[in-house]
Structure to design on (212 residues):
């Protein structure tokens, strides 16, 4: 029988990707091509307007996805120099900092993004991930629930909520969250584990916990 701590070692909350206009997963070559296309588009935007703060954020997102974290951070800061109130820049910065395990700084970045845009479901979902890593499970769950309130179709938030509830051994509630994630449209932006993968794996572990 798996304990809550063992569950958390196997299945962790997954980062919320930036919003996409299309749905569906990518294989690796397709993802690489899409990132290159996105990079070219943002670079073209900068050629047309060198003060386009959102273009800097877009390039930062691509570089972060490519593992170029320090370059991404520099671009988020450049965006914030141009527009100090750009919430998506703080969200992107938080994603990099969370990936670097600089959790206090990541939480502060997400909270700033939320302050600037209180309806930013993605920032709440990512804040939940950082709080989860800090073992602040009640706060993480509250953040996921807020993300869901703002965007009821956010499969990642439901999946990550299920993980946090599993850690608290609230297994019935975790099952409900995972099952809800599987009823929603999936937005897989090429990240290592999709919301559906996270939800299915989480369900399997919870069912083992409940029945063995």
């Amino acid at each position: 029988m798996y304990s809550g701590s063992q569950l958390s070692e196997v299945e962790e909350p997954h980062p919320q990707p930036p919003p996409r206009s299309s749905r569906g997963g990518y294989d690796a070559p397709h993802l690489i091509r899409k990132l290159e296309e996105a990079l070219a588009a943002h670079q073209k935007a900068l050629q047309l307007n060198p003060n386009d703060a959102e273009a800097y954020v877009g390039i930062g997102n691509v570089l972060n996805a490519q593992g170029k974290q320090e370059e991404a951070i520099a671009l988020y800061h450049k965006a914030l120099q141009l527009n100090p109130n750009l919430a998506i820049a703080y969200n992107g910065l938080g994603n990099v900092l969370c990936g670097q395990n600089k959790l206090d700084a990541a939480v502060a970045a997400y909270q700033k993004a939320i302050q600037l845009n209180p309806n930013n479901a993605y920032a709440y979902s990512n804040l939940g991930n950082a709080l989860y890593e800090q073992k602040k499970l009640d706060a993480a769950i509250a953040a996921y629930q807020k993300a869901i309130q703002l965007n009821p179709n956010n499969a990642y938030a439901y999946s990550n909520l299920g993980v946090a509830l599993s850690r608290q051994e609230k297994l019935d509630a975790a099952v409900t969250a995972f099952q809800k994630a599987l009823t929603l449209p999936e937005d897989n932006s090429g990240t290592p584990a999709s919301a559906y993968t996270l939800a299915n794996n989480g369900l399997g572990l919870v069912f083992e916990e409940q029945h063995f």
Q: What stands out?
A: DSSP finds eleven helices and no strands in the chain. The CA atoms of residues 10 and 57 lie 32 Å apart.
